[in-house]
Predict the 3D structure of the following.
Amino acid sequence: MHATLGDTQEALRELAAAVAADLGATTIEALPPAGDADRAWAALNDSGLLSLRADGAGTLELVVCAEELAATLSAAPFVGAAVARELWPDAPGRTVAALDGTLAADAWGATQVVAVVDGGLEAGPAAPVGPTADRSRVSARIDLAAATSLGPVDTERLERAELVAMLLLAADLVGVGRAALTDAVEHVKERRQFGVAVGTFQAVQHMAADAHVQLVGARNALWAAAWRLDHLGIEAAASVRRAKALASEAGRGACETACQMFGGVGHTWEHLASVRLRRALVSRALLGDENEQWAALAGVAPSRTPGGLADGEGYDLRDDTTEAGFRADLRAWLASPDGQDGDGWHQRLAGGGWVVVSMPPDAGGRALPVTCEAIVTEELGAADRPPPPVIGHLAHALAVFGSPEQRADHLAGMISGTTRWCQGFSEPEAGSDLASVRTRAELDGDEWVVDGRKIWTSDAAVADWILLLCRTGAAGHKGLSMLVVPTSTPGLEVSMIRTAWGSEEFAEVTFDGVRVPADAVVGVPGQGWEIAMSLLAVERGPADIGWISRFRRTATRLLADPIAGARPDVVRAAAWLEALDATVATTLTARTRGNHDTSAGSIDKLLMTWVDQWLHGAALDAGGLDALVDPGDDLELYLWARAAGVFGGTSQVQRNIVAQRLLGLPRH
Ligand SMILES: Cc1cc2nc3c(=O)[nH]c(=O)nc-3n(C[C@H](O)[C@H](O)[C@H](O)COP(=O)(O)OP(=O)(O)OC[C@H]3O[C@@H](n4cnc5c(N)ncnc54)[C@H](O)[C@@H]3O)c2cc1C
């Protein structure tokens, strides 16, 4: 799997960005009717952007270019011209396509419009329309009275052209939304109210973070859909519709957010924020906004990835040879007696070599690409087996920061499940603000003496060991250390706490003069914060915790139901699941290339939480009163999904990270 642009695709994106920078409108005065349409057509032609398809480019390449042109508010009719060439590969000169019925909404300087009328292709003069709501592009209609028939169109070609048009409009929405948000973020870094930059206000940071995460998800879904269209043909129609709907929601949403972030000036005729919003409205409405797409997607199963092996260096969601071999071996193991569900599942899974496969061999793994971790969760989910144990983040912490002795003593047992572990970070007075942890460890000779309380510690009742974040020095994060503590040590007590869904899985853990050897410290004293942050970054990557396959099962079940599958909330949640899936694929690809951006895990965590909550909220609603009078899995899954917005760092904390570390907004 290679869910990122290859070098050639990246070079094309850069070329499109350069053309877009040259043709874009940076001021209101530069919008049509100002500007030079002749120059725009010449630039599209000379750069090769007009002949991309003829030169062998795929739909993903077209999509990448469309996003760049939209981001600069370019009026150059790239989308109109590209769709015309889908319908009519030999279309001459300044021909654009009608993107919806007879309306060519992207037709600046076009002389001819092609449109499908009663199943036949017509080419006719471009008759001016407007001005429309869109102030950055120029529309035209085909003059049918003067049109010439080009004959009937092959249905598949027609359907494909419409899907390409949807994707390019989706790219336009992502591009315009991205640019709107970028501008607004820069504005709030400078704009001051109440004596501070307004970008320091959390209300502003959180709306920017939400818009950003939605755009990232929509764009990843869009790239996946474009790639699928090239590999599955019109069978990818549902994936394309989902991408168009997601981009409509995210693109318009980002433009609206940007206008809000600009305050009064964002609502003026003179400001580009409102121009971007207008463009988004038109791209969203063309070929169906999200509401129309949800209706068309009722009961449609989740998208599939085509078979075969990844080829070339470009974007590709298929397995490469290592991944395919790994998947085949795992499937064979799942068909063997060891691979059947039942007692000792964790130990058998580990014995088969299927746990923490991406870790180095000396830490108990197989040094496989991290994508193989995702394959494990995917195949286990598909085979209806329990997920792999949630220990990747704990094993990571010990493998990276532990001493050779700690690695030797603990990793094998942790991975094989012969010893169970829990994570003791949160305290009654220190949740989101982990740096204020009070549980204290004092060195007394060659022993640490621990006193304090931990709370919400998952699996504490069954754990043999606790990875404990505690204070060994002064206040603040520099005074924190990480210890490994056996839960059987005298003075350590576990009191169960019942969850909202009725299970007994987390607990309060008290430490009263608990003594552990001095070498129980992981790393060095004072390194606790660094270890905790590294661990949380892994915990926040959904790829490692295998929930996507659980979400997929829920989505597939709901969509297959004639009543539940037609609900817009179900269809929408299933579409966002594809955005999550595509985003995780991108994160995994980055990690296989050694790029482990810890802050980016917050995007995955937020998206994962939203999908969990939307999907399982919709599932509970679909069950109606019955699901509450006779409660079952749907209530439990819903309540668990609500908790997803808290454990591993709350959604608000993730928004803070996205806003401050990824968008660069200032701290208060
Ligand atoms: C099911 C479950 C399992 C858990 N398992 C574990 C575990 O195994 N080990 C462990 O250590 N912990 C665990 N936790 C605890 C979890 O990590 C904490 O609950 C979480 O970090 C929030 O801390 P808190 O509960 O103290 O809430 P608070 O931090 O008090 O938050 C209360 C509210 O204030 C908001 N808030 C707080 N700070 C900010 C801020 N800076 N900006 C904006 N909003 C803010 C929060 O978003 C939240 O809405 C678990 C929790 C749950 C629900």
Summary: Residues 133 and 416 are 62 Å apart (CA to CA). The pocket of flavin-adenine dinucleotide is lined by residues 202, 422-426, 431-432, 456-458, 506, 643, 646-647, 649-650, 652-653, 656 (CB under 6 Å). DSSP finds 21 helices and 16 strands in the chain. The chain has a mean pLDDT of 95.
